[in-house]
Amino acid sequence: MIIRAYEQNDIPEMLKIWNEVVEDGIAFPQEEPLNTQTGEEFFSSQSYTGVAQNEDGKLVGLYILHPNNVGRCGHIANASYAVNSACRGQHIGEMLVLDCLKKAKEKGFLILQFNAVVESNIHARHLYERLGFIQLGVIPDGFRMKDGHYENICPYYRKV
């Protein structure tokens, strides 16, 4: 598995992976899928966008890294991760988070914070906790699921 910066020709595969998570409606706050134009704009506007590529050259996951805030809080990063559903359970998410922590440090961030980890996303929560992220609390009913019901979100952070 190689994790590297995305390239323009990766965008079609990236869109499939990203939009699958958006369409599932249980993890990302976005509600609209990206198209080629909005995807190019979105991925290029990040501080860093990384992709996971398997031995066959197929993209199996990606992440975006960007500031969580501006000015006096601009040293805190935020990130989102997406793994192709057919490839989950292979520790790709873990590799993406570890690479993201390195890139965050290279970019001058001091902290990586996740604002909206859905409480029922136990796989992500266990991964973050295993990697040393600390849960900041619970925001009741902070995430509207695709079916319309609300679930709690758990913010996490870790120094990079």
Quick tags:
single chain, 160 residues, alpha+beta, Aminopeptidase, 8-stranded mixed β-sheet, 8 strands, globular
Supply the helix-strand structural class: alpha+beta
The CATH architecture assignment turns out to be 3-Layer(aba) Sandwich
Largest β-sheet summary: 8 strands, mixed
Radius of gyration: 15 Å
Oligomer designation: single chain
Low-confidence runs of at least 5 consecutive residues: none
Query: What is the CATH domain class?
Result: Alpha Beta
Q: Which percent band covers the strand fraction?
A: 25-35%
CATH fold name? Aminopeptidase
| SSE succession | EHHEEEHEHEEE
CATH homologous superfamily annotation: Gcn5-related N-acetyltransferase (GNAT)
- Count all strands and give the number: 8
Task: Please indicate the count of domains.
Answer: 1
Description:
- With 160 residues, the protein is an alpha+beta fold.
- It has a single domain, classed as Gcn5-related N-acetyltransferase (GNAT) (Aminopeptidase), CATH 3.40.630.
- 29% of the residues lie in helices and 33% in strands.
- The chain has helices at residues 11-24, 36-44, 92-106, 122-130, and strands at residues 2-5, 48-53, 59-67, 76-83, 111-118, 134-135, 139-144, 150-159.
- Strands 1, 2, 3, 4, 5, 6, 7 and 8 form an eight-stranded mixed sheet that branches.
- The protein is globular and about 40 Å long.
- The two termini are 23 Å apart.
